[in-house]
């Protein structure tokens, strides 16, 4: 009965581990997506800054410069927000990784306990079998001795 309870507990905890692994993988994917968005924003800012530089060399009005500069500031604000999103996503990845690894350890500990219980059960069965064989051999010996 205890073995069945341990097996059920192992299954439940293994299922929980699978769910935590899926959560971790999703968080990691989200983190990578957010990093890509941040890289895209940085690339866009660099391109737009290069456009501003090129236009400035050709001659740019102050209102045109102001518009470029204002847009670059908006891009930089978006970069700051995206960097915060990336940092948050990284913390989530770490948190979910720790939860998953802790659950993995719990599942392994239960599996080890089940294995230990099974080995103990086999040892007791072997001991009982040996005792039975010893008693059988003793009975045969005693019968032969009495028969002689």
TrEMBL record:
GO BP annotations of the record are: bacterial-type flagellum organization; bacterial-type flagellum-dependent cell motility; chemotaxis; protein transport
- Does the keyword Protein transport belong to this entry? yes
- What GO molecular-function term can you cite, just one? cytoskeletal motor activity
Main subcellular location: membrane
The parts of the chain that form a coiled coil are 72-134
Membrane topology is: Peripheral membrane protein
Q: Name one GO cellular component term.
A: bacterial-type flagellum
Compartment(s): Cell membrane
Q: What keywords are assigned to this protein? A: Bacterial flagellum biogenesis, Bacterial flagellum protein export, Cell membrane, Cell projection, Chemotaxis, Cilium, Coiled coil, Flagellum, Membrane, Protein transport, Transport
Q: Which top-rank group of organisms is this from?
A: Bacteria
Task: Report the family membership.
Answer: Belongs to the FliJ family.
Q: What is this protein called?
A: Flagellar FliJ protein
What lineage, starting at the top, does this entry show?
Bacteria, Pseudomonadati, Pseudomonadota, Gammaproteobacteria, Alteromonadales
């Amino acid at each position: 009965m205890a073995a069945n309870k341990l097996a059920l507990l192992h299954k439940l905890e293994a299922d929980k581990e699978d769910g935590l692994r899926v959560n971790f993988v999703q968080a990691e994917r989200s983190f990578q997506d957010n990093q890509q968005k941040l890289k895209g924003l940085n690339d866009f800012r660099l391109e737009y800054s290069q456009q501003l530089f090129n236009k400035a060399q050709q001659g740019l009005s102050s209102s045109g410069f102001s518009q470029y500069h204002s847009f670059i500031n908006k891009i930089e604000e978006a970069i700051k927000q995206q960097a915060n999103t990336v940092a948050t996503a990284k913390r989530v990845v770490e948190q979910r990784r720790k939860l998953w690894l802790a659950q993995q350890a719990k599942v392994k500990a239960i599996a080890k306990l089940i294995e230990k219980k099974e080995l103990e059960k086999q040892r007791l069965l072997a001991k009982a079998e040996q005792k039975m064989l010893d008693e059988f051999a003793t009975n045969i010996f005693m019968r032969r001795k009495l028969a002689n």
